[in-house]
What we know:
By secondary structure, the protein is mainly β. The chain is 3% helix and 35% strand. It has one helix at 148-155; strands at residues 5-7, 10-12, 38-45, 55-61, 85-90, 99-110, 113-121, 129-132, 140-146, 187-196, 204-208, 222-224, 229-234, 251-258. The strands form three sheets. Strands 4, 5, 6, 7, 10, 11 and 12 form a seven-stranded antiparallel β-sheet that branches. A five-stranded antiparallel β-sheet has the order 8-9-3-14-13, with helices on one face. A two-stranded antiparallel sheet has the order 1-2.
Amino acid sequence: MLRKLIFAVCAVALTLASCGRQVTPNRTNTPNGLQPGQMQVKFLTQAPPDFVNNWYVLAFNTSGNGVEPYAINGNQLNNWLNFSFEIVVFQPNANSAIQAVLIQFVSTQGPNGPLKTPVQVCCPPPQDLIVIPNCGTQNQFCVTLSRNIFITQYCSPSPSSSPSSSPAPSATPSATPSPSSSCVANTWNVNWFVASPNGNPTGQVISAAGSYGVTDTTFQKTYNVTTTFDQTWTQPLPPAVPQAPSQAAQIAGGEVANEP
């Protein structure tokens, strides 16, 4: 099934295939309950998440420049400015499992400088990308990941863009570009979006972190992944931010925990 994930007003086709599965990670004695090398990102909404009618997106900038990947820059026109990776969490239909896919924004040399292309990384080991629904509350889900899924892909010769056979929104890039030579830095930025697979246009961002919603450029969450931390944030409630179409799409806050 072909669908498009669109940020702001510019369309770009992404491959979304089944690469994640929901299991409970092994707990350890670390303060945040994670194993060494793991990060957990929590996504809180005003009502229980609706994974069929919404795509929940975690955007990462792992370049180390300390700048957020904002929704308004997540398009081809703005060359995916400050986007390194995305994790998209969704449910193809009510009878299927909740899934997570990893997208890498790979740089290639264009006529006027580097150009980014979104390419699906398929597929991280299941234990390295875990979706946990109802994580602590019915209005929150968690994504637990091994940071190596970023480091390995960003520094490897080329990521795979082959889709799986599972039904999901999909459109494969025409070619698999090679990543740039730089590797993942120690300073990461994370952002939270909700996109609509049923909207007009399909996949448009309908909710984002920060006081100005999908047009926000003030939200700032920078993390040093060489340290242990567990940091939460709370989204201003409407009318401080534009109202999302539903409470399931209304971002209420988030949390990032990390174990070096």
